[in-house]
Amino acid sequence: MASQVPRKILDHMSLLGDVHVTPENLGMMTVRSTEGIPEGERLDYWRHSVLYRMEPIAEEGGKPFAGRLVYIAGENCAFVHNVSEAIHTRRDRARLRRDDCDEILVGLVERGAPSRLSHEGSQTLRQDDLCIADFSRPIEYMQARNREITLMFRRSSLTDALKGDVSTLAGRLLPRGGISAILRSHLRLIAIEAANMSARERAAMIAAASEMTLLALQREFRTGADEEQFPTGLYAAAMTVIRHYCWNPELNPEIVASRVGCSRATLYRIFAAESESVARVIWNARLDRAHALLMASSESGAFISDIAFRSGFIDMPTFNRMFKRRFDRTPTEARLGTR
């Protein structure tokens, strides 16, 4: 008897291109998993419920296939987090003609062994690579067991951002440093925290990721990037830098601007639009870090002066004064839970 395989299609491209994004579905999270499906039916299920645009050729690595995918609807792009066993997939010219799909994906190899990609040339993808895939071109992917995070864009979004032909992007890699490094960190944060966020929070995080990606593409593939075209992305990138490096007492607005790749004047304007001061956000990040360390049971034996130093403060009077002003109690009171 033929096995009954679920046929409900999670067509990412259809969701992205044909469904009008409304406040009701923006940030909505959908999960697909092979858990509970018999081993012999999993690849067929994955073909019909997840891959759809790609044809699985074979399982790789000798293990029964297993996978889990999280899809989140965004306003300008969709977010996909895929964890799966090794698999060999292909998108050939016959499939291109059949579905006429031309969306562009920017994917992060979050973790896993090297995978082989044939897409306007052949290359090996490794952990932390950010690769561009163009679904209007043939693709063959010998994917190792790994975790990938993908942003899926309408072609028109990239055409507008780059002000021209995007057909040369297929198979290209974004650089390891600059705004691309911040984008990697941001994508990982979404993947880790998505289940704990509200739909509105997920939508905001994806919107920021979208703008960071478009800015990274502009800087890499277009002459004369417009650094103020994507204020949400720049603001989120700057906040990521501040959170990661607030422990450094030398961190200042000039360093933050340099890290995200914009002028200091642009950074000031972007923060002013959020009714924020860059310097104040840096100091508040240091204070929040210190407060979290004071509350952590693993830091119960640490000197308060040591926590202050590890949070970016170089003198105790300044730390005590600013801490009291922000939290309405002294560091000692915060640790003891008094007041």
Automatic annotation (TrEMBL):
InterPro entries: AraC_XylS_family_regulators (IPR050204), Homeodomain-like_sf (IPR009057), HTH_AraC (IPR018060), HTH_AraC-typ_CS (IPR018062). It comes from the Bacteria. Keywords: DNA-binding, Transcription, Transcription regulation. One of its GO terms (molecular function) is DNA-binding transcription factor activity. The keyword Transcription regulation applies. Residues 236-337 form the HTH araC/xylS-type domain. The keyword DNA-binding applies. This is AraC-binding-like domain-containing protein. It comes from Kaistia soli DSM 19436.
